[in-house]
Amino acid sequence: MYRDNAICIENLVKKFGSGNSEVTVINGANFTLKKGEFVGLVAPSGSGKTTLLMMLGCVLEPTSGKIVIGEEIVYDKKWLIKDDRELRRKKIGFIFQAHYLIPFLNIEENITLLPYQNGESKKVVKPRVKEIMEYLDMTDKMENMPSELSGGQNQRIAIARALANEPSIILADEPTAALDKERAVSVVKMLKKITRERGVTIIMVTHDDRLLPYCDKVLTIKDKKIDVKENNNEII
Amino acid sequence: MINLAAKDIQHSLSKFLITAISVGVLLGIVVVMIGVYRGMVYDAQVFIDDAGADIWVVQQDTLGPFAQTSKIHEDLTNQISYQDGIESAEGITFQTFQMENRYGDFKVMLVGYDPFGDIQVIDRGKLIAGRVLQKQHYEVVVSKKTNYKLGEYIDMGRDRFKVVGITDNTVSNGGDYLIFTSLKDAQTLQFTYTNERIRSDENRGIKGGNPHLVNAVIAKTKEGYSPKIVAKNIEETTHKKVFTNEEQRDLLLQKVIKKSSKQIGMFTVILIVVSIIIIALIIYTMTLEKIKEISILKLIGIPNFTIAKMIIQETVVLGVLAFISGNIFATLISGSFPKRILLIPSDSIGLFIVILISSIFASLFGIYKVIKTDPAQAIAG
Questions:
Q1: Nearest residue of A to residue B378 by CA position?
Q2: Contacts of B375 (CB under 8 A, 6+ apart)
Q3: What range defines the domain where residue B209 resides?
Q4: Domains (ranges, CATH) in chain A?
Q5: Are B306 and A117 a contacting pair at CB < 8 A?
Q6: Element spanning A137, H or E
Q7: What is the per-residue pLDDT across B8-18, written as a single tens digit (0 to 9) for each?
C-alpha cells in the first residue's frame, strides 16, 4: 500500500495546551510524498513548520492522526515504534538552519558518528564517507574541527552527516537561512541532486520563495491545513 | 565507535585539567586531614613504643602519667624491682616545657630518666647525632625539630644544659618534641621550688618540697611472666595503679586523643561530603554546558546510554585525575605542618573509592538531565 511512498500522513492533528489555553497548530493534515522527491515547506513564522518537521521526525508526538515512514506505520493515534531514536538514526537525516555539528568532534567523527552507532563497520563506513565528501567537494577537511571551517563549509558537512547513515528521508529546517543567495542556491541544487541520484526524499523548510522553483512539490500550511502543490516549472 | 568522553576531554583539555586539579586540591586537603588523624595516633604511641616497658606503675586512682597527673615516690622503684616477675624498673618523669630559641618558640615534653638505669627510653635507632646521656647532670638530648645543634647550651630552670645528642622522630603523645635529661635534673626542674617559694611555703608552715618524686615507674617483666598478672600483683601489694603497656596504649588512644580524633574525623567527613557535593555540581555544570550538543545528539538518534556513558566516563577520568593531583598536593604540603602528617596509601585508595562511587552517583544528576532533555531543544533558539 505504501510501497513507493517516503512519507504519508493522514488526518494529522497537533494541539498544544489544554482547556482555554489550547492551541491547534495542525488540524487534519493529509499528504503523501514519493521516494526521491524534493519538497519545499513554506508558511509564515509560527504557523507550525517546525512542529510538522518534528512530528515527521518522531521527536514531537501528534495529538491524533497517522504517520507512515516508508512502509512502516510509526504513529496511529499513538506511537507504534519501540525506539524513536533508532528510527531517526537509521531512516531520517536532519539538517538545521545552523550546522549544529558537535564541536568536540572533528569533521570525520561528526559524519561517522551515526553509522558507527548503527553498528556499521569501518570497512563499510569509510568508503561511503569518502564518497559523500568527494560528492560535496570537502575531502580535504576530514581532520578539521567545525570551528575551523566557514559557515557554508559547515553546512555542507551537516548535509554530509545527514547523508552518512543513508536515510530515506532528510528533514531540513531552513538549511539556507544563514547563507547568502549564491551559497543558498548552491546548497539547494546539491539537495536536489541528492534526491535525484540517491533516491532520498527531502523536505526543506524555507522562507525564500526564490528557492521554491527547485522543489518538486511545495507544501504550504494555511489555516492549520497543509496544501500540496506540484511544481511543474522544474529548474535543474 | 567514537569515544565521546575522550573527544570532549581532548577538546577542552586545559579546562578539564584545571577542574580536576581544583577538585584534587580539595581531595588533597581531605587526605591531609586523614594524615593529621593518623599522625596523632602514631605520635600518641611513639614514646611508649620507644620506652619498651611492659608495666606502668602510677599514682593510685589515677590514669597517669599521660591521661592524668601522677606523682609517686622514687623509692617505689626499688620496691617494684623486687616484685615477682619483674626484671627491671626505673622511675621516669614528664614535664611540658615552653622553650624559645633563635628559630622561634615551641613546646616540648621533657623526659627525665636514669642514664645508667636498666631501662633506656631513648631509641638508639632514632639518635641521628651525638650520644645518649652519660652524666647525671647538665646534659640534654633533643629532638631534631627543636633546631638545637650539638654542643649548644640550653637554659632550663636555674641550670644550663649541654646538647649531647639529637634524635629524630621523637614526640610526645601530644605531638610535642621530646627532650631528655637525667632523672635527677628533671626532678630538680619539676619538683624543686625557687628560694622565694620555699620561704613563702615556710611562712605558711609548709616544709620544703620533696624532689624525690617521679611521675611513673616503668618496668620490664621477666621472660615467661604475663605482664597482666604481674601488674595485678603489684597493684595489690603497693596501693598504686598499674597498667600493662597495652592498657597504657589504649588509655592514650581512647582517652587522651579520643576527642581530638573525633573532631578531626568529623571535619574529615564534612570535607568528604563537601567534596562530593562540589564534584556533583561540577559534573552537573559540565553536563549543562553541553546541553545543546546533547539535544543534537538525541535529535539525530544517539541513545541515552551512549550519552550517559560519556558523562560517567568523564566523571571517572575527573575522579582519577583529581585523586592523582590530590595525592601529589597532599605529599607536597604535608612536610610543612608543625605536627606529624602520616599519609598512608590505603587511606588514599579508600578515599578514592569513596569519592569515585559517590561521584558516579553524583553524575546521576547529569544523566537525569540528559534523559529529561528534549531533543527538539536542539533547534530552539
A1: A100
A2: A59, B295, B298, B299
A3: 60-239
A4: 36-59+83-230 (3.40.50.300)
A5: yes
A6: none
A7: 999 999 999 99
